[in-house]
Amino acid sequence: MSATATAENPVLRAVRTHTQAENSSSFLTLNSGNSVFTTPGADGVIVYRTTGRFAVQLGGPFAAPETYDTLLRRFTEHVRGQGLRLVGVQLQRHDAERYAAQGFTVNQIGASWAVSLPEFSLRGGRFVQLRNKISRALRNGLEIAEVPAGDYHTALEAIDNAWLGSKGEQARPLEFLVGQLGGDAQQHRRLFVGTIDGAPVAYISYSPVYGSRAGWMHDLSRRIPSGSPGLMEAINAHAIERFREEGVEWLHFGFTPFTGLDEANELPGHSPAFQWLMHFLWEHGEALYPAQTQLAYKQKWAPDALLPEYVAFDGQASLASFAHIFRACNAF
Amino acid sequence: MTHRESGTDALRQSMVDYLMRIIGLPDDEELAREADEVVRALDGRLSTGRHAAA
Questions:
Q1: Calpha distance B32→B21 (Å, rounded)
Q2: What is the pTM of this model?
Q3: How many domains are there within chain A?
Q4: Complex prediction ipTM
Q5: Structural domain containing residue A142
Q6: Do A258 and A234 share a structural domain?
Q7: Which candidate from A53, A273, A323 shows the least CB-CB separation from B39?
C-alpha cells in the first residue's frame, strides 16, 4: 500500500530502528512529498517518489533484517504492477549487495563524506585557508546562533529567495535528496543562523543521523549571494564546536554524486558503461550537478570517512532511469 | 552502422548524447529504448575489453 509520508507515520521509527545500512541520509525519507510503501507482515518501510514512468527509491528498505528481502521483492512487484520502472539511489554497501543478489544492476554513483568529531580540530597547517575565511566572516561582523526555525521563517525565506535568484532564471530548488525546513520533522533538526548587523545572511540546517556513526548531517545550507566570504565555514565551525561539547561523534556532509569513485567499490554484475559515465560526469558534468564544487567544500573539513553510495536498476543500467533520479529532485 | 558495430569512443559519445536528449525529452519512450541499446552495446564492448586484458 502507498501513503503520503508524515513525521507521525512509521518512517521515523523505521529509520531510527533499522540502521544496518548506516545511511547518513535516512532522515531525508521524512521530507514532505515522499511516498511510503509498507506491506503486511514485514517490519519496515520503503520511501520513494514517482516521476514520469519511474519510481525513484531513496536508500534501501529501512526494515528488520528478516523482512528486508521480502519488502524489497514486494515493492519491486508493486512498482512493476503499476507499469513503472524502479531505480534506487543512495543505496549503501549493505543495500547494494542485497539488490545485486535480487538481480538488480548495481553501480557506484558517488559517495558521502563524514568527519569524526572527537579528534577534530581546526588547528594545523591544512586548515590555514579555512581559518582565514572564518576570520574574515567574523571580522565582517558575523554572529552565529542556534535558533528555532519557526521564529526565523521570514528571514530564511528571504535568504532562500536571494540565493535562488542568484542562480539564474532557469534555477529550480532541488528536492527529495536534499533537506527541508519546517513541518513535523523540524522538531528533530537543528538550525544555525548567521547574522550581520542583526540581518540574517546565511544558515545551515542539520538533520539527525542514526546508527553506529550517529551524529548530525550538514544538510540544507544557503547564504545571500553578496555576503561576506566564509559565512558557511564560520557557521559550520560554530556548529562543530557545539556538537563536540555535546559529545557528538560524527558530522556527516551527505551524498555527492560522481565523487569517491573507485573500481574496488563496484560489485559483480555492474555496468562498465555506467561506471564510465560516472567518471565522465565527474570530469564534465558540471551542468548536470556541480560535484567538484560540492566536494571541494566537503574536503575543506578533511573528512575521515568516504562512504560509497550506489544506484540500482531493475534490469540493465538505464540512462532514462538515471535521468529520472534528477527529475525526481526537481533538477529538470 | 548499428550500435554493436560502433567504436568504443563513438558509443561513449552516443551515451552522453542520449543522456542529454533524455533530459530534454524525459517522457519519450522510444528515446529511452534507443539509449538502453547504446548502454548494452557499450557494456558488451567494455566487458569484452576487460576479459581480453585479463
A1: 9
A2: 0.93
A3: 2
A4: 0.90
A5: 115-253
A6: no
A7: A273
